[in-house]
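Title: Comparing notes on inverse folding

I've been comparing how different people in this forum approach sequence design from structure. To keep things fair, I'm posting one structure and asking everyone to reply with a full sequence. Here's the target:
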């Protein structure tokens, strides 16, 4: 992963961000790095108001950085290289006093993986829609990973039919859906293939079977991420303890406990329609054009599409719910 360049500086990847330092992986070694005085000064000019952003925010987990190795496993970050993507709140409507990089949670991400169980607990489809909207707002592809598929026969016929129909609708919209069970050891090859050679941000509530799933992929992996979550549960700020964990088959994952705190949901109402891919063909075609909120206005092309079955009513209700949230 590292390459030697001028001035014995090397390139590494930020795998963990702590309160006052970063862990940077460069080849086989992991160095504990601080920002160079020049970078720290540049960063310091923008005082962070939010308490959870106590650390300098110039570099995020996933960032490629140029570092100068120092003795005793230490290093200094000289430069943050340009990002190819980032996950966080897109600064489409920037606040004048905010530094754009404040909004980046993980840099150089390839996809978001939303994990839900088929039952125990029952899937919260509205929450999945939130996650997918967050992915769309960051221009990231998203994968829906369903767990505990072995519980499917235990669902009532109605719930089972509805669940399968909802999943089929996500696929129709264009989201990949992977169905797994650690009890049946099913879907693991598919999940593995979806994660391979990519950087994936994982999101899912505790109890959905994420640790079991990760352990199924790579022994010990679930434990690794669970430790991160537990640590965060003790009142530590999640943003400072995200960790990127390498997959032995190539690629890496970043678990995201406490997603809600990241403020990903603050998407401007006028942008929300764009975050529902199946609505995009209709945007701008309403009687009130781009001013339509697709709620009760006459001549709404989106609502017409809901009526004729092109947009699932449940997704439409999710849209309205997200739009009307305070
Ligand atoms: P996490 O909190 O998301 O990391 O979830 P865990 O991996 O700790 O799993 C939560 C519970 O779900 C545990 O009781 C697991 O035994 C159970 N579980 C996990 N995966 C499966 C599965 O594929 N099928 C079934 N039936 N139970 C599962
Ligand atoms: Zn409309």
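Reply #1:
Here's my take.
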């Amino acid at each position: 992963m590292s390459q030697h360049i001028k001035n014995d500086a090397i390139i590494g990847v930020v795998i963990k961000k702590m309160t006052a330092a970063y862990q940077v992986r460069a080849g086989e070694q992991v160095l504990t790095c601080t920002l160079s005085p020049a970078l720290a000064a540049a960063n310091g000019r923008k005082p962070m108001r939010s308490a959870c952003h106590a650390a300098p925010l110039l570099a995020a987990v996933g960032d490629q950085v140029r570092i100068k190795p120092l003795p005793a496993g230490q290093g200094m970050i000289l430069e943050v290289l340009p990002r190819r993507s980032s996950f966080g709140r897109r600064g489409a409507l920037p606040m004048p006093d905010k530094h754009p990089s404040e909004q980046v949670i993980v840099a150089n991400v390839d996809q978001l993986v939303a994990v839900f169980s088929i039952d125990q607990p029952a899937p919260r489809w509205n929450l999945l829609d939130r996650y997918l909207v967050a992915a769309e707002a960051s221009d990231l592809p998203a994968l829906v990973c369903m767990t505990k598929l072995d519980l499917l026969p235990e669902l009532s016929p109605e719930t089972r039919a509805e669940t399968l129909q909802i999943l089929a609708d996500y696929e129709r919209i264009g989201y990949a859906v992977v169905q797994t069970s650690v009890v049946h050891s099913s879907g693991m090859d598919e999940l593995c293939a979806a994660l391979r050679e990519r950087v994936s941000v994982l999101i899912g509530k505790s109890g959905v079977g994420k640790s079991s799933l990760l352990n199924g992929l790579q022994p010990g992996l679930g434990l690794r991420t669970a430790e991160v979550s537990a640590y965060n549960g003790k009142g530590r700020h999640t943003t400072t303890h995200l960790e990127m964990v390498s997959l032995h088959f190539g690629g890496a994952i970043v678990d995201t406990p406490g997603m809600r705190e990241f403020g990903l949901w603050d998407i401007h109402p006028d942008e929300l329609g764009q975050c529902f891919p199946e609505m995009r063909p209709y945007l701008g075609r309403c009687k009130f054009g781009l001013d339509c909120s697709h709620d009760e206005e006459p001549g709404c092309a989106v609502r017409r599409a809901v009526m004729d079955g092109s947009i699932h009513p449940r997704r439409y209700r999710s849209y309205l719910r997200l739009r009307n949230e305070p």
